[in-house]
Amino acid sequence: MADADEPDLEAGQTVELALSDLRARLPAGAADLRDALPGFEPDRNVSDWGRSDRLERLVDRTLYGFLYHYWFRVGVQGIENVPGTGGAMLVANHGGALPPDGAMIAKAIAEEHSRPRAVHLTTERSFSGVPGVGMLLTKLGGVSAHPANVHRLLFDERQLVLVFPEGRDGTAKGLSERYRLRRFGTGGYVEAAMRARVPIVPVAVIGAEEAVPVFARLGLPRRLTRLASLPVTAPVPLPAKFAIRFLEPVYTDDLGRAPWEDKGLVQALSQDIRALIGENLLEMLSERRSVWLG
Fold it and tell me: What's the CA gap between 206 and 74, in Å, rounded?
C-alpha cells in the first residue's frame, strides 16, 4: 500500500517531476507573493543591517544635499585617499551636539569620489535604547560599535566603516574646548582594522563644533533617556563652513602575523593617528579666515 504522503507516479514520470508538479499545486511562498502585496513601500530595499535604501535616499535629497551644498558648503581635500574597493576604516575627530560630521563625511564620498560608496557609521550602543533614535540611525546606515559587527563589515563585506574614537567625550566638549582631541579610547578601532587587514584612513573635520555648539549640558535621569546628559545647543545648525580632509591611508596588512596581540603596537599606532589628525586640524584652523566663510 502506497504512503499517503508520496505523490502518485504516472507511467514514465520520474520522482523529481512528480514532486515539481506537487510543489506547483502548493500555495505560493512569501517570496512569490511579495509583488502582489499592496504594501506602503513596495519598492523598499532593506539590508541585513536594517539600512533602508528608500529612507536614506529621501533624507539625502531633502536634508543632506541641502546641508552639504548650501548650508555647510563643504570643502573636501584628499578624497582620492579613500579606497574605491575593498574594506577600509575611516577614523575622524568628533564634536558638536548631535554632530553632523558623520553625515557630511558620507556625503562627501558619495558626491566627490570617483567611485561613490556607502559608509557605515558605528554608533554608541546606548543610542539603540533611545526610542526612535536608535531605529532612525539604523535605517540611515548606523551600526552598533561591536567588534563583531565591525569585523563583518570590514573583512566579510569589504565595506567602508566610519568610527569616532573620541566617542561621547568628543560631543561633550564645550565651545572653549573646540578641536582639542579627547583620548582615542583603548585603540579598539586599530585592533579591528588589523584583524580585518584593511587600511585606516584618518579624517580631519572642522566646522561641526561651530555648527552645533555645546553651550551646556543638562543632567537627566538615565532611566528615562538612556543618556548621561542632554546638550544645550542652537535650535537649528548654524551655517559654519565645513572642511573635510582625508589623509593618506595607514596600512595594517604588513605589520606581521597577529599584530593585534601586541597591545603596545596597537596603542602606539592609535596615538600616531590621533597626533596626525590633530596636526591637520591645527593646520586647517590656521588657514581658516572665518568660521562662516572659510
Answer: 10
Report helix angle 188-196 to 263-287, nearest 10.
110
pLDDT tens-digit readout, 106-121: 999 999 999 999 999 9
Please determine, for residue 9, whether its predicted confidence score (pLDDT) is greater than 90: no
Gap between the Cα atoms of 122 and 104, Å rounded: 15
Pick the CATH number of 53-287 from 1.10.760.10, 3.40.630.10, 3.40.1130.10, 3.40.50.300: 3.40.1130.10
Q: Do 246 and 89 form a contact (C-beta atoms < 8 A)?
A: no
Would you say 260 and 92 are in contact if contact means Cβ atoms under 8 Å apart? no
Q: Is a pLDDT exceeding 70 seen at residue 41? A: no
Rounded to an integer, the average pLDDT of 128-153 is: 85
Beta-bridged to residue 278, according to DSSP, are none
What burial letters (b/e) apply to 222-247, b meaning 16+ CB within 10 Å? eeeebbeeebebeeebbbbbbbbbbb
DSSP strands (E only) in the chain: 75-77, 88-92, 119-123, 142-144, 160-163, 200-206, 216-219, 229-232, 243-246
| Domain edges within the chain | 53-287
How would you write 136-200 as a 3-class SS string?
A: HHHHCCEEECCHHHHHHHHHHCCCEEEECCCCHHHHCCCHHHCCCCCCCCCCHHHHHHHHHCCCE
Calculate the alpha carbon distances from 278 to 92, 167, 182, 245, 247 in Å.
10, 16, 10, 12, 12
Give the C-alpha separation, 142 to 271, whole Å. 26
215 confidence band (pLDDT: 50, 70, 90): confident
153/51 Cα distance (integer angstroms): 13
Q: What is the tens place of the pLDDT at every residue in 141-152?
A: 999 899 999 999
